């Protein structure tokens, strides 16, 4: 039932504060992260883990790419991420003491499942799935399961499942870290950020009307670029995927530092450029990337932290986002990106919940 919403996708976007609460339920105890459902053996495997390999497709792959930033930053262990359709068909080398992780909303994606079956023959320490479907093949085939609690997702374009994946991956990252002696201060700083996340997502949702107005600027365009740096680069990739999927506008994401290596040639006044600019250690570098684009006549739409000190001016429209914690900023900045693709699709009159040529669960390769 769509309730008061025009599409399931919009309903699912607005469910995200609750989805985050549900995903955290019972897992934050006295400001500590405890996941009881992984089973006793998991901690032993986590203590021995010296590398992580993550496999997924589509939106779930973008969640994996964000997790890579966290795992290498907080745990200082290598994290490799690959799309399932590549991994399953090539000769792969396994780093010693690696943990194999799949991420999937449906738990039935054919390529991801095949990659998991292959991994079981390859000498990993163990296999773990971050999955939204408790009764799925991936849950059955994996040693360990961390359930995301997004509830049933009906819109073909994944929204709330993505947010639940990111929250779950953060819980998992800390759980692996604790098995390896992560200090309490680090854990507490992550718990603080997670506890504030539902409210931060709520205030991002309050931008819906402003983003609906903004979407007019995209509906007639044929291309859009999304820029981010660091852990926001995968968020830019996810934003580009959403826009392609439901509004049929060609979109690409670039790590902002890569612009001068080619894509700057695309910039003219017909090319809208969306930038995700949270307050982090890369903000100053991102600002110079913004200037590179503006000075070449690009039309910039910058989603920036309130305190980022980027002003709207000729060629730049700024949308303030409240996100106090750098680590959870990917979840917060995802919200305006989802809303943007949604409202552009509505103007274009596409079938938002059931975009052409796509299926919710890709059980054939
Ligand atoms: C994008 C989308 C797809 C899925 C992909 C993987 O909005 O829905 O890209 O993310 O097909 O599906 P799961 O997560 O079920 O393995």
TrEMBL record:
Which GO molecular-function terms appear in the entry?
glutamine-fructose-6-phosphate transaminase (isomerizing) activity
Keyword Manganese, does the record have it? no
Q: Where is the active site?
A: 360
Catalyses which reaction(s): D-fructose 6-phosphate + L-glutamine = D-glucosamine 6-phosphate + L-glutamate
Keywords, comma-separated and alphabetical: Aminotransferase, Cytoplasm, Glutamine amidotransferase, Repeat, Transferase
Domain SIS: residue ranges? 42-182, 214-355
Location in the cell reads: Cytoplasm
Assembly and interaction partners:
Homodimer.
Q: What does this protein do?
A: Catalyzes the first step in hexosamine metabolism, converting fructose-6P into glucosamine-6P using glutamine as a nitrogen source.
Q: What is this protein called?
A: Glutamine--fructose-6-phosphate aminotransferase [isomerizing]
The organism named in the record is Kangiella aquimarina
